[in-house]
Amino acid sequence: MNTIREQLGRAKTILYRKPKDELRRLIRWGPRGYFRCDAWAREMERAARVLPILKPEAMDSRKVVRVWFLTGRKFWYQTAFCAWTFAKHSRHAILPLILDDGTLDEECIDGLRRLFPDMQVHRAQACDDLFRMQFPLARYQNINGWRTRQILFRKLTDIHAGSNEFRVFFDSDMLFHSRPYELDDYFDKPEGCLFQTDCWESYGYSRGLVENLCGHPLPIAANIGIFSLHGQWIDWDQVESWLGEMQACEGTQYNVTQCLCAMLMAGNPQFRLDKEQYKVWPKCPTNGEDGRKLGHYVSDSKPWYFGQAWKLGFHADCCSDQE
Questions:
Q1: DSSP 34
Q2: By CB neighbour count within 10 A (0-12 exposed, 13-18 middle, 19+ buried), where does 60 fall?
């Protein structure tokens, strides 16, 4: 019965939900944004291969900060632009720590390593082997299930399990546009859980349920495009129990990773990035003159991201590098 129900659900998604979602996206983005977005993304990928290499002498005197990314074949060039724009504007140098989503090939790695020769790559198979040791299936069925079901869940498990420090994660679909002073200061002295402010609260599960489970008020509208947790603050047996209760009460929700991270932040010291300066879902591109330091280009800001945002400053940098 379950198999038939699952097959019917997949058929409904293919024949109804997905076409309906695409039609709505066409209306929101307009014909030009909708039909040109993939071509703009390919242009951005080509540009990532010729990003100017930051001058070594400028890097030697800067503190090196470690930033985690989850990326793969479809996203490596976005990771490159995010890390490169951070290194360009920050007073720190960056050491990217790359989690392979299972699709990262040598061509992608070479493209990233050209910009960041010392970066570290954690290949998918090695991550899977370590995960199985840390989270045996017999003890952690819910954590195993979510990690298999949703690749984004690895932002939590694969980065923070076994850690005894604050570890900072960046989503790839972000661009830094000016000096991120607050983020630089955080890297100098991390004293709380770091996170962005979302456009609206998006945890999937109800506040009443999750606050009852974790015993603390959740931070309001936390977004984990940029976030950090301290590994020693995470009780994984508790996370396993939470997941079981959440699913039993309210089913499986897409934003489970963001919800869990907010639950783990609750009751601990927190560092919130300003909503306007570190903007989630920008409505237009920026050159940083409006005070915006970062754009996190989610959802309907993708046409701005692929069509215009990454180009701001890129051509000038390439021209000056060639000179």
A1: H
A2: exposed
What is the sign of the dihedral through the CA atoms of 186, 180, 306 and 220? positive
The helix/strand/coil state of 26 is helix
Tens digit of each residue's pLDDT (9 = 90 or more) over 257-282: 999 999 999 999 999 999 999 999 99
β-sheet with 222-230: strand ranges across: 120-122, 93-100, 64-71, 166-170, 222-230, 193-197, 270-272
CA distance 28 to 44: 22
Strand order in the sheet with 174-176: 174-176, 294-296, 278-280
CB atoms under 10 Å from CB of 93, counted, come to: 19
Residue 270, phi then psi, degrees to nearest 5: -135, 150
**CA 98 to mean position of chain CA atoms:** 12
Q: N- to C-terminal Cα distance for the chain?
A: 67
SS3 content of the chain, % helix, strand, coil (to 5): 55, 15, 30
Q: CA 178 → CA 33, 112, 223, distances in Å?
A: 26, 22, 20
CB 97 within 8 A of CB 67: yes
Q: Which of 172-176, 188-192, 285-289 has the lowest mean pLDDT?
A: 285-289
pLDDT tens profile 53-108: 987 655 556 899 999 999 999 999 999 999 999 999 999 999 999 999 999 999 99
- In angstroms, the CA 266 to CA 86 distance is 28
